[in-house]
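Ticket opened by: R.M.
Priority: normal
Category: complex prediction / small molecule

The reporter submitted a protein together with cytidine-5'-monophosphate and asked that the result be attached to this ticket for the collaborator who will pick it up next week. Submitted input follows.
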Amino acid sequence: MIFTVAIDGPAAAGKGTISRAVAQQFGLRHLDTGLLYRAVGARVANGDDPVAAAEGLTPEDLARGDLRSLAAGEAASRVAVMPDVRAALVDFQRRFARAEGGAVLDGRDIGTVICPEAEVKLFVTASPEVRAQRRWLEVGGDKDEVLAQVIERDRRDAERATAPMVAAPDALLLDPTEMGISTAVEPAARAIREAFGQGRA
Ligand code: C5P
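Result attached by the on-call engineer:
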């Protein structure tokens, strides 16, 4: 079975929680593609060339303990504007998306660039304030600074020339602000069940 669930959207919207929940529910593998960019950003911060870092990513790079920090997110979005860095990461993501057994990938460009043929596409979003609050609860620090960084990262991700963050025209839009992230898993799961039912798997 080849079956891809593409889950895109801005930082801290709830993509990760929804992705992990549906991957577990439907027995699909899951790839958090933001980690790839975070790991490249971390290597660049240590002096590596961005493209060489993207081409040479190792499992150890992805297992670093500091990839969830605000600084790592910031570094990730800076390398993510570079077309050659993105190009170096495409094959790995495509192979993961279309490998036998089915997969959930979350990121910014999964439904538009990495896997436009995905059987299910979701775009998860929420206001910058709600997302900043969520991020602040995770990482602490100055609340206003966290909000400013969320807004700046959104702008950089949405305005870059290559693979900007945008909802695919056929994506289902989910805003978990009102319902809570765990409740938002249900419409996501329903969309997947429907695609399975239509024999798209
Ligand atoms: O999702 P996460 O916050 O971990 O992503 C970190 C950064 O990596 C994003 O702000 C974005 O610049 C970049 N990214 C991307 N394309 C993806 C996933 C992440 O450009 N598919």
